[in-house]
Amino acid sequence: MRRRDFVKGAAAAPFCLGPAAWAATSNEGEGPGRLIVVLLRGAVDGLSIVIPYADEAYYRERQSIAIAPPGKADGALALDGHFGLHPALASLMPLWTERRLAFVHAAGSPDPTRSHFDAQLYIENGTPGQGTTRDGWMNRLLLGLPGPRGATDAISIGPTVPRILAGKAPVATLPLGPNGAQPLPIDQPEIGSAFDRLYSGNDALAKSYREGRTARAQLIGALNKERQIADNGAPPPTGFPGQATRLASLIRRQPGIRVAAIGLGGWDTHINQGNHKGQLADHLRSLGEGLAALARGAGEAWHDTVIVVLSEFGRTFRENGNLGTDHGHGNVIWVLGGAINGGRVYGDWPGLSPVQLYQRRDLAVTTDFRTVLAAILERHMRLTDRQLEAVLPGAPPASQELAQMILG
Amino acid sequence: MSRRARGRSDFHQFVVRRFGGFAVAAGLLIALPAVLATGAEPIPDRLVVHLLNRLAFGPTLEEARQVKTIGIERYIAEELDPDSISEPIELRWRVAQLDTLKLDPVQLRRLYGPLRSLRGFKPNPELEKAQRERVRIILRDAGEARILRAVLSRRQLREVMVDFWFNHFNVFSGKGLDDVWIGNYEEQAIRPFVLGHFRDLLFAATKHPAMLVYLDNALSTAPGSPAARGRQKGLNENFAREVMELHTLGADGGYTQEDVVTLARVLTGWGVNSPDARVFPEHAAVFEGARHDYTPKVFLGHPLQSRGKAEGEEALDILAHSPATARHIAFELAQYFVADEPPSGLVERLAARFLETDGNIREILRTLFASNEFWDSRGAKYKTPYQFVISAVRAAGVSVPNVRPLLGAMDQLGMPLFGCLTPDGYKNTEDAWLGPDATTRRIGFATTLARANLAVTGAAQPVDAARLEAIFGSTLSDATRSAVKDSPKGLRAALILGSPDFMRR
User: Fold this and answer.
1) For the segment B425-436, what is each residue's pLDDT rounded down to a tens digit?
2) Least CB–CB distance from B436: residue in A166, A173, A198
3) Rounded CA separation A6/B458 (Å)
4) Which of A16, A85, A365, A384 has its CA 20 to 30 A from that of A74?
5) Residues A173, A188: one domain?
6) Is residue A18 part of a domain?
């Protein structure tokens, strides 16, 4: 409750935070933190993100797409004695050094499907193998947080509400493109009040209309202010770095935002995946720069923010016949934020020899993705066991090791 | 509950009044002679609007009157036989201007593809840039043709099915040469087959270079085959998986990872001809035996009898005729035309019809449109952004001198035309599209359209609210009607087009 009071004060005076306020935002109190989920749709190749350069099989089976070991030209950036980071993610190395970035390797879904669409459904509805769960686990999380739900507690970055955020609790959708804050006819009082009468019912459409109106009123002002500042000279950044910059400023101005989600596509690299440069490297660079911008731009809000980056499954260990990779199984989950005990690759590494691979072709899953989420939901979002069961029904508990991932 | 129950009795009464008990007992509404549909009492607006919301991109005033004149059965019969319907002169004339639609894939690549060195002359970067600008005309022509036809065509069901099947066999204009081929893909691989046999559609889509490039089959190569080298040294599973998961059997259609690999091997060699090929120079998509896997294969439990190119056709035929495919297509059609979670009884009947008719899409739809489930589902579907924008322009009855603002509206609503990156295509369910931003932006589009803000909608004259009331008046909810009545005259058309009633179909 104390944190909520603080949030109100912060919204009124966003730039007047002294050291005392900082202490209140760190997640030592009772209140929940903030969670941002980045979904990499299309199954990113996790073995090219956190690279097992110490496994000789890695270089044997990936002759054209492997990244050289640390110390070599265009090599991976050393993380520990075994793993290296893709060089296109250099913008994230400061966070690693500050121990605010962690990875969980060989993580994934207990469901074996290699269908993008089924697998995405499962990481979004939080019930692997059960397509019938209609709502998303992030929406169930919102319902479990204390206090009434406001129209802008949850933000979907994009024009629609993805499954992961769908459900009973209201979710604001914000395109967050360079023109996302442009005025709409509905913002004019005469038009707005006429449509308010039309959408005064209790059906799903009227509800979404009212949520949209409230969210616009709360968020557009903040975005426009930011735009004026950003437009002062340089053009605003485009793509994910631009969206992330705008999301960061939104969180800084509206610390009441509890969860946000964004989906990014373009990871389905069946051909010409590239190595230290190329298709995947370009996408990773943009993602890394965006995450770094989010960390930089969130200001004090960074201290109680956790960002999770995950994908529906990993890709084949061996490169395929077209210098790409096909649909696989295990992957890496990224976790970063002010409340993260990072600088470490978590999880049990299953190895890459043929018998260690899942069905002799894919990285095995040794950590259920739900246990990574469970650790964050319990320790960072402050859910009770009962609430956690409602968000991720049937999920195994987080291991002791994963619990250490959250500072507290 | 009560809405559904009322819907059923509406149609029941309508049938009884107009055709007597026999038709209901026989359940063969479509088979009734059209002559019965004249005379008698007028067809209620709610049935006319429902029909046109599903078989067309919503009613125009003219088409609503047309249905009332010729009757529902004849309208359905005509729409299922689109070549019997003549097209408006404006549409024919405007589509005829779009020259790139007339070119074949080889011509398109030669004229609009990346410049190639010729006899030692290398194109400079400026020329290459100019060529990249030039290719945009393909997407412009394809977009203009699609939107103009969707708005103006009297063969509305064909246009609805183009939307349905393009999404089913989605390709993305941003992948490889697909920016050059996307218009031709719709013209040649989708459009001619949308009411034909599913097998023909599957074959046409699979053999089009746009699909072979999009899902990477063009590069898939039998390891160790004469053509295996460099970037084309082995298998690629992408197309083989998606053709089973998305195009035919469905994700729960009973295939294994081994079947995925087998089908990838079967389809090795289904690729794209080189720009300076001496063999079949007039074909962009070819079978290249040099990269094919000629070993014997067992696919989905069937030992394949054919070899080479015919082996792929045999495998596709197995897929096209599988009961799992019948069910998958039946489900998708019922979801598109009836409800997000379609009644299982209907899906089963449509699947049975699929198997009885060798996948004849026209006959499956005939069964669908005669079903109680179809007539009971009035307003059950939330429009996609595409359907919303097209239906608003059609109902408004305004001319569309420029389609670009309509495409811009679809972009803003998250459904850019030809811009779906993933092979599953755009969804048509409420949970995919209904959201706070969607509602306020749709209202924004409705308002600017109604007020003739040319820059935003491309429509040149304000919308006449009386026209909209003539189409929808009696079908609008009481709440909408009274909100419209209590509002300034200048806002009424905007309110109808932006109403909750108009968001649904």
Assistant:
1) 999 999 999 998
2) A173
3) 49
4) A365
5) no
6) no
Taking CB atoms and an 8 Å cutoff, what residues of chain A touch B219? 271, 321-322
Whether residues A278 and A346 fall in one domain: yes
Domain-embedded: residue A132: yes
Judged by CB atoms closer than 8 Å, whether chains meet at B431 and A134 is answered as yes
User: How far is CA B455 from each of CA A325, B390, B438, B451, B476, rounded to the nearest angstrom?
Assistant: 45, 17, 20, 11, 29
Task: Show which of A235, A262, A279 is a domain's final residue.
Answer: A235
C-beta atoms of A323 and B231 within 8 A: yes
Q: Which helix (H) or strand (E) holds A282?
A: helix A279-297
Q: Do A195 and B495 touch (CB under 8 A)?
A: yes
A221 and A290 share one domain:
no
Residue A22 lies in a domain: no
Average pLDDT over residues B321-345: 98
**Inter-chain CB proximity B216 and A323 less than 8 Å:** no
CB atoms closer than 10 angstroms to residue B268: 32
The residue range of the domain holding B359 is 323-375
How many domains in chain B? 4
- For the stretch A136-178, pLDDT in tens is 999 999 999 988 888 899 999 988 999 999 999 999 988 777 6
Chain B contact for A190 (CB, 8 A cutoff) = yes
When scoring A157, A205, A211 by the number of chain B Cβ atoms within 10 A, the one with the most, hence best to mutate, is A205
Question: Is-contact B221 B291, C-beta < 8 A?
Answer: yes
What tens digit of pLDDT does each residue of B58-101 get?
999 999 999 999 999 999 999 999 999 999 999 999 999 999 99
Q: Burial code of B54-91, b = ≥16 C-beta within 10 A, e = fewer? A: bbbbbbbbebbebbbeebbbbbbbbbbebeeeeeeeeb
Whether residues B499 and B389 fall in one domain: yes
B323-350: average pLDDT: 98
How far is CA A384 from each of CA A70, A381, A394, A396, rounded to the nearest angstrom? 42, 9, 15, 15
Chain A window 348-367: which residues touch B at a Cβ cutoff of 8 Å? 359
Task: State the smallest CA–CA distance between residue A231 and chain B in angstroms.
Answer: 22
Helix (H) or strand (E) holding B411: helix B404-412
Which of B236, B257, B495 has its CB closest to that of A321? B236
Cβ contact A198–B221 (<8 Å): no
Residue A183, chain B, CB below 8 Å: the answer is no
By the 8 A CB rule, do A287 and A240 touch?
yes
Residues B299, B288 share a domain: yes
- Measure Cα distances from B296 to B218, B224, B227, B256 in Å: 21, 16, 19, 18
Same domain flag for B314 and B397 = no
Residue B151 within a domain: no
On whether residue A7 sits in a domain, the answer given is no
Q: Which of A229, A341, A303, A359 is nearest to A3 (CA)?
A: A303
pLDDT at A14 over 80: no
Q: Are residues A208 and A121 in the same domain?
A: no
Residues B438 and B475 in one domain: yes
- Does residue B99 sit within a domain? no
**A-chain residue closest to B225, CA distance:** A321
Candidates B437, B457, B480: best to mutate against A (most CBs of A within 10 A) is: B437
Q: Residues of A numbered 112-151 whose beta carbons fall under 8 angstroms of chain B's beta carbons: which are they?
A: 113-118, 134, 151
Q: Tell whether B46 is covered by a domain.
A: yes
Q: Residue B484's closest chain A neighbor by CA?
A: A198
CB-based contact B440 A213, cutoff 8 Å = yes
Count how many domains chain A has.
2
Cβ contacts of A116 on chain B, cutoff 8 Å: 422, 424
Say what the ipTM of the complex is.
0.85
pTM for the model stands at 0.89
Q: Which residues form the domain of A190?
A: 181-235
* Neighbour tally for B99: CB within 10 Å: 10
